[in-house]
Amino acid sequence: MSTALQAQTHLHRVELPSKDYKDDTTSFWCAGCGHYGVLTGLLRALSEVGIDPNYLVSISGIGCSGRLPYFVRSYKMHTLHGRAGPVATGVQLARPDLNVVITGGDGDGFSIGGGHMPHLARKNINMTYILMDNHVYGLTKGQCSPTSRKEMKTPTTPYGGVEAPLDPVLYMLTYGATYVAQAFAGNVKLASQLIKDGMEHKGFAFINLLSQCPSFNEMDTAKHFKNATAILDDSHDVSDLDAAMHAVNMARREGREPNGLLYKTERPTLDQNMAELVKNVGGHKDYDLRKIIDLARP
Ligand code: SF4
Ligand code: MG
């Protein structure tokens, strides 16, 4: 492994219980919302990794998911709809020593922000992206989203949909994410484990958390997600991309959702590649975004 890959500069550790990662702001989602499970899983993962809140940046777009950073003790940015990815990219490149976490919904990430998703993955930007996937637009009261089931009736599809849903994990596997996992948000133990591993992964970690919206999605309930769970067993080879895609396709054929770590690999991150560029082209020893900007000036 190269020296660049070994440099885990993104982890500043402290010892704190998960409750100490909770911001004083009271969390406010509807009763029974799956996003509470996402929040609990994230707080536990932060505690288990021991991330220093002073080096944590929590970033979201718009949607019920967009509230999550308010509830986490961290620096936080509630950005424009679909734009958490570009904002987080800027933060990560300017300060590679920070831990950057995006929390966003299915509409925010894959509809309005869909143009950004392949580039976060292919560039292997060192961050953790938690998709809070409830297969519906919750904040705007129940329109169909890119991950809604075709047959779901919503205010925008009163007779059912006419479009096949997008598959976030297959999408991310295809575009080169170096860590791809999925879990039901109600399985907080598994969700927190996958988030923890994703945070410790150097590269773009994508975790799809299936999260029920009891207010606006009557089909994909907590019971449905729980019953559809297909836990990946120990025989699954997480280093095999074909095996990951096969596992998703096989589960889908049975109407189930694969839960667990699907795929993990290592390759240099964008900030590492830029550091190499600065060293080789500019003769600078250390990565510094300002030096790169200076180099680019005519
Ligand atoms: Fe959760 Fe749905 Fe309520 Fe939004 S509308 S807070 S996603 S239950
Ligand atoms: Mg949604």
End-to-end C-alpha gap:
36 Å
Give the overall silhouette.
Answer: globular
Spatial order of strands in the largest sheet: 2-1-3-4-6-5-8-7
The name of the CATH superfamily of the largest domain reads Thiamin diphosphate (ThDP)-binding fold, Pyr/PP domains
The CATH topology annotation of the largest domain reads as: Rossmann fold
Number of helices: 11
Rg result: 19 Å
> Could you tell me the number of beta strands?
8
**CATH top-level class of the largest domain:** Alpha Beta
Instruction: Please indicate the count of domains.
Output: 2
Which characteristics define this entry?
11 helices, disordered N terminus, Rossmann fold, eight-stranded mixed β-sheet, 298 residues, binds iron/sulfur cluster, 2 domains, alpha/beta, 8 strands, binds magnesium ion
Task: Give structural notes.
This protein is α/β, with parallel strands linked by helices and 298 residues long. The chain folds into 2 domains: 265 residues, Rossmann fold (3-Layer(aba) Sandwich), CATH 3.40.50; 31 residues, no CATH class. Helix content is 35%, strand content 16%. It is built from 11 helices and 8 strands. An 8-stranded mixed sheet has the order 2-1-3-4-6-5-8-7, with helices on both faces. Helix 9 links the parallel strand 7 and strand 8. Helix 2 crosses helix 7. Iron/sulfur cluster binds next to loops.
